[in-house]
């Protein structure tokens, strides 16, 4: 079956059924057309899934049929079930889709940070351009560590979380430009490299890694996830495949924006580790171990649970979550 030709022939009927399903006020004739149209679209969906089980066209018709069923049955979906399904299937599948792009963003960050740090540390006079000897000494011996303890636990955690969440959300939202994510990644990597070089110049490079390791593992990985989602949204309209660019952007953008929900949670977890664990006078292996466990949990959620959901046919769409929201408003 040629999906494009099939869509061209039946597309007007699908659009009409979708319009009737979305309409909140219709006549008796509209209800009759919706019922008959529902049967025809269901037949079309069965044919499409017989040749292309995971096609965007099939997903679109599935959503149309759900809206139609909701219109003439009025049976709401349990919101708790919808939210549970979202976090158990759709969110991990969305995260799984960007797994390799995330790795590439991480590799680029590490490479740029290392290059910048080594260059500054090995170039005579380069470190001095970032401050006076006294300012550099104070940064390395006092300010770097005081950052984690100068504020109250709750206020510091909230500040860290809101700041990082804002950065991650911008990387996802502005990823479509194709420029924002690379610029943000480079800026973040350069900042890490400069900090490492300054700490190294004062003989405190070990402290640099110790103090960022507990929370930095998950915090940085969350930023890598945000960068990966932003780049994937950009790629959806650069290379849309058989879909139109508008359709590809709408479908993939909706799916990948679900990553923002996951990022809010992972950054909240890293903020808790930074605000609660990093500042404690505990052995470093304990603090770093807690951060490693937090990162491992997110990796399992993305790679293992997400892989299962993706192989089962999920693509990270928010359809199930939308069903719960629709049920609340329509019930």
Highlighted features:
elongated; 81% helix; 331 residues; mainly alpha
Structure characterization notes:
With 331 residues, this protein is an all-alpha fold. Helix content is 81%, strand content 0%. The longest helix is centred in the C-terminal third of the chain and has 34 residues, at 205-238. The protein is elongated. The model is unreliable at 319-331 (pLDDT under 50). The chain crosses the membrane at residues 98-121, 179-199, 220-238, 258-277, 284-303. It comes from Curtobacterium subtropicum.
Radius of gyration: 25 Å
Structural class: mainly alpha
Number of strands: 0
Give the overall average pLDDT: 85
C-alpha end-to-end distance: 39 Å
Share of helix, binned: over 70%
Low-confidence stretches: 319-331
Q: Largest beta sheet, briefly?
A: none
Proportion of residues in β-strands: under 5%
Looking at the structure, what is the overall shape? elongated
Order of helices and strands: HHHHHHHHHHHHH
- Total count of helical runs of at least 4 residues: 13
């Amino acid at each position: 079956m040629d999906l494009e030709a099939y869509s061209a022939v039946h597309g007007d009927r699908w659009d009409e059924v979708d319009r009737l399903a979305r309409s909140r006020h219709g006549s008796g004739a509209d209800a009759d057309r919706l019922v008959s149209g529902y049967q025809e679209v269901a037949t079309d969906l069965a044919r499409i899934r017989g040749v292309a089980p995971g096609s965007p066209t099939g997903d679109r018709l599935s959503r149309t049929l759900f809206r139609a069923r909701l219109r003439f049955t009025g049976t709401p979906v349990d919101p708790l079930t919808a939210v549970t399904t979202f976090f158990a299937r759709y969110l991990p599948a969305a995260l799984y889709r960007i797994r390799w792009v995330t790795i590439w963003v991480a590799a680029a960050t590490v490479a740029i940070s290392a290059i910048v740090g080594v260059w500054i540390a090995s170039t005579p006079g380069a470190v001095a351009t970032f401050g006076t000897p006294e300012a550099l000494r104070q940064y390395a011996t006092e300010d770097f560590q005081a950052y984690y303890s100068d504020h109250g636990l709750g206020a510091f955690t909230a500040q860290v979380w809101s700041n990082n969440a804002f950065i991650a959300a911008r990387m996802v939202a502005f990823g479509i430009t194709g420029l924002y994510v690379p610029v943000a990644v480079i800026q973040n990597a350069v900042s890490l490299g400069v900090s490492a070089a300054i700490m190294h110049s004062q003989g405190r490079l070990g402290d640099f890694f110790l103090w960022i390791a507990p929370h930095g593992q998950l915090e940085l990985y969350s930023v890598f996830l945000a960068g990966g989602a932003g780049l994937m949204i950009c790629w959806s309209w650069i290379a849309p495949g058989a879909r139109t660019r508008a359709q590809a952007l709408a479908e993939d953008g909706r799916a990948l924006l679900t990553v923002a929900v996951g990022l809010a949670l992972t950054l909240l977890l890293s903020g808790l580790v930074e605000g609660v664990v990093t500042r404690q006078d505990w052995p470093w292996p304990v603090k770093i171990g807690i951060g490693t466990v937090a990162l491992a949990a997110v990796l399992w959620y993305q790679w293992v649970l997400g892989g299962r959901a993706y192989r089962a046919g999920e693509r990270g769409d928010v359809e199930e979550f939308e069903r719960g929201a629709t049920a609340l408003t329509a019930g």
